[in-house]
Amino acid sequence: MRTAPAATPWHGLTASQGTLRLSTDGAILCEQTMSEPWLYQLRICLPDELVEAARTDLGSPELAPLAGILAKHHAKMLAQFDAFAGYVAEAERQGVEAYPLYAWTKATLEDPEKRAKHLKSFALHVDGREIYSRDEADALEADLRPLVGGTMIERLSKHDTNPANNPQPPEKYRPRSVT
Questions:
Q1: 91 Cβ contact list (under 8 Å, min separation 6)
Q2: Pick from 69, 84, 148, 156: CA 20 to 30 A from residue 174's CA?
């Protein structure tokens, strides 16, 4: 198996949290030690009218309730689109062969429907980390929950690093494993 780059838009694991590997069929696998619990990430989906402000100026008045909660939890948000674009740009600078999700991520960015979806979806990072403990995720989720369904947050979801709970790229975009 070949080790995948640690920072991918798929799991965002770093070397201290686990290792991403490619299986023989090209699937992305997350390996963690059994003593470590799964880590989590919250994502929110914003209404179209807040997306640009959220991407460029979290200090804008219409985002004040959200900005206050994020500050309380030492959290920042990053549009999935921007994370994907960063991954593609890095892959193109470093050499795409070392980035197993490059083709899938680039195709996602080029698809107008998926592009619009990922512009509205924001990953929440806590203390600079893409993934964090369940306690941190639960506390942030509890404070955000009252903003869901109104004019601030359309949808809130919690994701974990358990590979069984994470979709794989379509077969045509799966990298081939190198043994």
A1: 98, 99, 102, 105
A2: 156
Domain ranges in the chain are 37-173
- Among 80, 55, 67, which residue's Cα sits nearest to residue 152? 67
Residue whose C-alpha is closest to residue 99's, from 3, 179, 27: 3
Q: Which of 152, 158, 153 is nearest to 135 (CA)?
A: 158
Between the CA atoms of 63, 130, 173 and 52, what dihedral angle is there, to the nearest 10 degrees?
A: 20
pTM over 0.85: no
Residues 6+ apart with CB under 8 A from 61: none
> What is the structure's pLDDT at 157?
96
The list of the chain residues with pLDDT below 70 reads 1-36, 174-179
Sequence-distant (6+) residues with CB within 8 A of 163 are: 28, 29, 30
User: According to the model, what pLDDT value does residue 171 have?
Assistant: 75
Q: Residue 28: its pLDDT value, please?
A: 47
Residues 47 and 147: beta-carbon distance below 8 Å: no
**Cα 73 to the center of its chain, rounded Å:** 18
